[in-house]
Write a structure and sequence with these properties.
Helix content: 40-55%
Largest sheet: 5 strands, antiparallel
Order of helices and strands: EEHEHEHEEEEEEH
Number of domains: 2
Number of helices: 4
Number of strands: 10
Structural class: alpha+beta
Strand content: 15-25%
Radius of gyration: 18 Å
Length: about 190
């Protein structure tokens, strides 16, 4: 049976201890899903074309981050378009290079709920350790749920802190009540 170890550090964050193939694979699959959510969010199909304003309007932090990374890379290289495969390779490298380097260096990496990583070098004291059967980052009991809707938008989005809530691949709901219920379901799996 799979088990995931999470540690709460004195900097206030919860981290997955990635020190085995199960955790490594879970992180890589999770990061791939974040990339897919972000890519779907900006609405691109085959290539990025900044001149013709073919960007979608990102609704999530993942989509926004992907759009900014691609805009910066295209500006840096003086390009006006970028094929899909090249975009995916560039973004995958950006998302995973530090994680893989740290894992290969030490065999253990701490990964936070935003995908950031660091070595466990005792810079921050470990305050709590828990084991879970599911790869779901812990949340504090008093975590705040926010329901948002863009001006003139038709969907509702749920956030816990600054994290977008995604339940069963869905990240937007037709009603405030449905978004609230999804956030509560998500939070029920996470609360320590």
């Amino acid at each position: 049976m799979k088990s995931y170890e999470f540690v709460k550090k004195s900097n206030g964050g919860w981290y997955l201890v990635c020190d085995n193939i199960t955790a490594f694979t879970a992180v890589m699959e999770w990061k791939a899903s974040l990339l897919a959510y972000g890519w779907m969010d900006i609405g691109m199909e085959t290539e990025v074309d900044a001149n013709n304003h073919r960007w979608g309007h990102p609704q999530t932090s993942y989509g926004n981050a992907i759009q900014i990374l691609l805009e910066v890379e295209m500006e840096r290289t003086g390009r006006e378009t970028m094929p899909l495969l090249e975009c995916i390779n560039f973004l995958t490298n950006k998302m995973n290079s530090a994680f893989i380097k740290l894992y290969n260096l030490d065999g253990s990496v701490l990964v936070n709920s935003a995908g950031g990583c660091m070595m466990d070098d005792d810079t921050f004291e470990t305050l709590q350790t828990i084991h879970k059967d599911k790869f779901v980052f812990p949340k504090e009991q008093d975590a705040k749920i926010r329901i948002i809707k863009w001006p003139n938008g038709s969907h509702y989005y749920a956030k816990i802190g600054n994290e977008d809530v995604v339940v069963d691949g869905e990240q937007s709901w037709n009603t405030r009540k449905a978004a609230q219920a999804a956030a509560e379901q998500y939070l029920a799996e996470c609360v320590v």
